[in-house]
Amino acid sequence: MAAAAPGPEDELQEKGGVATHIRDEKPGDAAAVRAVVEAAFPQPTEADLVDQLRADGDSVISLVAVDDGKVVGQIVLSKLTAPFRALALAPVSVLPDRQNAGIGSRLIQAGLDRAVQDGWQGAFVLGEPEYYSRFGFDAALARNFTSPYAGRYFMALALNSELPVTEGNLIHAPAFAALV
After folding, report:
1. Average pLDDT of span 47-61
2. Cα 137–chain centre separation
3. Is residue 2 part of a domain?
4. Helices H / strands E in the chain, number of each
């Protein structure tokens, strides 16, 4: 991971000169985060997931994108039981009118940079390979891990030079049970 870890308020200039700040989610952000996740997905399942990960203490890294005092995006990396220190990336949410402006990418990169800084060894995601491969996620790297999400859209990323092992059982935080 070449990029530097984000500071407390990492700034991203977007179209039209609007600055978006990436920062840790704060306790007072919960309602705004839920509104963003609900707006980004067609059903409340992902918003319920974020709330439950937070309530269970399984949210390890939760970052928000803030523009002019308003939360416009959010990302969660949560605890994953694996043969090494690993996180699950999900969901990534951006308000519909702010999508395709680089906010989601910036949130993902900031989250992965933080994971490296905090000593995590790998991350797993269920998502579109074309999108997540730009961050280094690879379905072939996840192929030998057992997970209810295994398949073409399940990918892994080594957060250092390589994963300590290339197979094993993965258990997502209990909140993910509602998604299977």
Report:
1. 97
2. 12
3. no
4. 5, 10
Closest C-alpha to 65, from 27, 32, 112: 32
pLDDT tens readout for residues 89-139? 999 999 999 999 999 999 999 999 999 999 999 999 999 999 999 999 999
CA-wise closest residue to 152 among 130, 180, 173:
130
Domain at 147, CATH number: 3.40.630.30
The whole domain housing 114 covers 10-179
Q: Pick from 136, 131, 67, 139: which is nearest to 97 by CA?
A: 67
The span from the CA of 35 to the CA of 26, in Å, is: 15
**For the chain, how many structural domains are there in total?**
1
pLDDT (0 to 100) of residue 53? 98
